[in-house]
Design brief:
- The protein contains 22 helices and no strands.
- It is mainly alpha-helical.
- The protein has four domains: 188 residues, Serine Threonine Protein Phosphatase 5, Tetratricopeptide repeat; 89 residues, no CATH class; 83 residues, Tetratricopeptide repeat domain (Serine Threonine Protein Phosphatase 5, Tetratricopeptide repeat); 95 residues.
- α4 runs antiparallel to α5, α5 packs antiparallel against α6 and α17 packs antiparallel against α18.
- The chain is globular, with a radius of gyration of 26 Å.
- The termini are far apart.
């Protein structure tokens, strides 16, 4: 007797929702414009974060993580490992709709039509789509879990270059959570007593910019389970929010919109992270601690003066420990912060190399252009101190401006050059004159336009550049 095969297109048309992760509107599922090495790096970083998340999960929520781990393995060309992950989920949780759909996708890619059809048939039965056979159990609850797992996945998408993209993906994830609640009715009820659920809600509120709500939910998670061994994620999230609050206030000060940022946020973040360090040392914890110690050791306003050398040395030590991890050497933020520490310690040449490395590691279309500005400032500082000559300065500026124009949005490059020209006007003018003499007019024109824009209120005009 022939087995009845289910037509996947017909099945999809009948669905109010579609199980699985490979169809979701995530950057992960589409061709990336980033070089393959950057895309692979991002996937590996996200997979590492998920592995940390999995360590504290024992209930059904672990399957949201494990399904996504299988998807990441698939995109890292570890197809057999992906198949193994989905099969293991189904051994433990045979009603997991996403695992059945994901496994069908993998079998399809492996050209195993027979196994793919079996997966689709099981999926149809569990969803209650069979016309002549009623599904056992509660299809509504299965649908709710399926949608919640998909909503969770959006928080781990890759290639989100801007805040707008992050908001878009998180909003899509929340829409799936809303749909899950409509099916399942009880997600909300269990949240108040479940630290893992509270931690996820806190993370979502944090990314949506609702810091007060995020902090309140995070505090609830810590009240329910204050033990850092069992709930280190909440301490990490709490520290992350405190650091963000400090940096937000710091930006406001620089714009003249408020008083000095509260140092207590840094000290409290340090306390949280030290608790995590004792039970779960990892790349992100070392990076966060290094960041905290950097801001404790530097003048807050301009970041150009050393106020605590011991704190700065501690920052460098934590960055070094972070770089011992597999992915530590590919994070541009580590190189940027290392460079800023070394600049304060007057190790200019080493600082320059860190800023260059950070630029190289940045993804295409990244808006994190601070490394480029720091590099330009360091080169001009060495020039003003007669530590490099005009020829060397010209060569370096020309090379790295071109790299920046290929990597970052044009507006961001112009913005950073404008700041550099404003603070190093004399050096830029001298460099421009030398470049005109050597016929390098294209870069001079860029610098001139930048300066002209900055000084358009009468402080500078074209006659200032009479060579």
């Amino acid at each position: 007797m022939e087995e009845t095969e289910v037509d996947i297109d017909v099945l999809i048309d009948e669905m109010d929702y579609i199980p699985g992760h490979f169809h979701l509107d995530m950057n992960l599922n589409f061709e990336s414009t980033s070089p393959l090495n950057f895309q692979g790096r991002d996937v590996k970083l996200k997979r590492e974060s998920l592995i940390y998340e999995l360590e504290s999960e024992t209930g059904t929520q672990q399957y949201a993580i494990r399904n996504l781990l299988g998807v990441f393995s698939f995109y890292l060309e570890e197809v057999e490992k992906a198949k193994e992950i989905f099969l293991q989920i189904l051994q433990e949780d045979p009603e997991n709709l996403n695992a059945w759909a994901n496994l069908a996708y993998v079998y399809d890619r492996l050209n195993d039509e027979h196994e793919a059809a079996k997966c689709t048939e099981n999926l149809s039965h569990l969803m209650g789509l069979d016309s002549d056979d009623e599904a056992q159990g509660n299809p509504q609850l299965r649908a709710s879990r399926c949608l919640a797992e998909q909503g969770y996945a959006y928080a781990f998408d890759i290639g989100l270059a801007s805040e707008e993209e992050k908001m878009e993906k998180l909003t899509a994830g929340l829409a799936l959570y809303d749909k899950a609640l409509a099916y399942g009715k009880q997600a909300i009820e269990i949240a108040k007593d479940s630290p893992p659920v509270l931690n996820r809600l806190s993370k979502i509120f944090h990314f949506l910019g609702k810091q007060e709500m995020a902090m309140a939910v995070c505090n609830m998670a810590l009240d329910v389970l204050p033990n850092p061994v069992l709930n280190w994620q909440a301490y990490c999230m709490h520290a992350k929010m405190l650091i963000k609050l400090y940096l937000r206030d710091l930006e406001r000060v620089k714009m003249g919109l408020g008083g000095m940022p509260d140092q207590k946020n840094l000290f409290d973040a340090k306390t949280d992270l030290e608790k995590v360090m004792k039970v779960h040392p990892c790349l992100k914890t070392y990076l966060s601690l290094g960041q905290v110690y950097y801001y404790m050791g530097v003048d807050a306003i301009q970041e150009l003066f050393l106020v605590d050398e011991n704190a700065l040395n501690s920052a460098l030590m934590f960055f070094a420990k972070a770089m011992e991890f597999d992915l530590g050497n590919v994070l541009p933020e580590i190189q940027l912060l290392r460079g800023k520490c070394l600049r304060l310690k007057n190790e200019e040449r080493n600082a320059i190399e860190c800023f260059k490395e950070a630029i190289e590691l940045d993804g295409v279309a990244s808006v994190h252009t601070e490394s480029f500005r720091c590099l330009m400032e360091m080169l001009l500082t060495l020039f003003s101190q007669k530590k490099i000559n005009t020829e060397m300065l010209m060569k370096e500026v020309e090379v790295w401006v071109k790299k920046a124009e290929k990597k970052y949005p044009k507006q961001r490059v112009q913005q950073e050059l404008r700041l550099v020209c404003r603070h190093y006007t004399a050096e830029v003018l001298e460099l421009s004159k030398a470049m005109v003499t050597r016929g390098k007019t294209e870069l001079v024109k860029l610098l001139f336009e930048t300066m002209k824009c900055d000084f358009k209120k009468g402080r500078m005009n074209e006659r200032s550049l009479s060579f």
